[in-house]
Amino acid sequence: MALSTAFPVLYLARHGETEWSKAGRHTGRADLELTEHGQEQARRLGVRLGGRSFAQVFSSPLRRARHTCELAGHGPGASIDEDLLEWDYGAYEGRRNSEIRAERPDWDLFRDGCPGGETPDEVAARADRVVERVRAVAGDVLVFSSAHLLRVLAVRWLRRPVDVARHLLLAPASLSALGYEHDLSEPAIVSWNETSHLVTATS
Question: Is residue 128 in a domain?
């Protein structure tokens, strides 16, 4: 992925591995630490970013995102943004998709949300606020957060409905980029779910 384009770019960095992400458990507001492997992934993400400077860096307040930001070399000066918190899974916190669908076979996070947690519209509203703040920055922006929030952020950048996010997968410590095609009225995905920097970071 080229790290420069004619227009400002929003770079999306997912946090490194945690015990729950490794196990496929929904991790919303549970404030988990990175595994040792996740820390190595975060350092490799920093190598991929190549010491580049950004006009603004934002991070979720959750430790897994903040620690990834720090290990990737962007802790100093990063602004904590509550709107970058991961989806609140409510009663589904810590559960796997297979467990939830054993009870609700047609459940879809991006359509149904979570009982006791957030609705898709509530998460979209947070993502929209992030997009508004990012577009007010003169220059490239880097954000550190979690998978489902970043997926929603991407589709809201494209001005698409939340349920489109179900088609965009994100690996731990991946790097993606959102920008524009012909002008600032045409938002686009520049690259998605890049993990080439992780190929030798074996678990």
Answer: yes
